Amino acid sequence: MNQIARPAKTDPRIEEQAAIKGRMLAKGLTAAEIDRRYNLTPGTARNTLREPNIKGERAIAAALGTKPHLLWRTRYRPSGQRRSPQDWSRVPTLAQRRNAVTELTEAS
Length: 108
Prior knowledge:
434 Repressor (Amino-terminal Domain), mainly alpha, single chain, 0% strand
């Protein structure tokens, strides 16, 4: 009997990351451009998509014309107050997520 591997419940941080990347793409922005425009250390905006960084969050939100708590609902309370402590476990990369699915299907 063939079993179809069902995807695990999607991490809300992955959905957030994808939505933010989509908004950046729609505005024609890159993470490197945001770093330069807001005088951030190179790589800050890119890393902010995967792990909390207050300066990067503020810069990305400003570049998109919004506020950080509206982009990162997992990092901020609805009131706009930053959650503390932050969840420092990184969002898995696409390659890591693909490997996890491959391992699940091979185990079946």
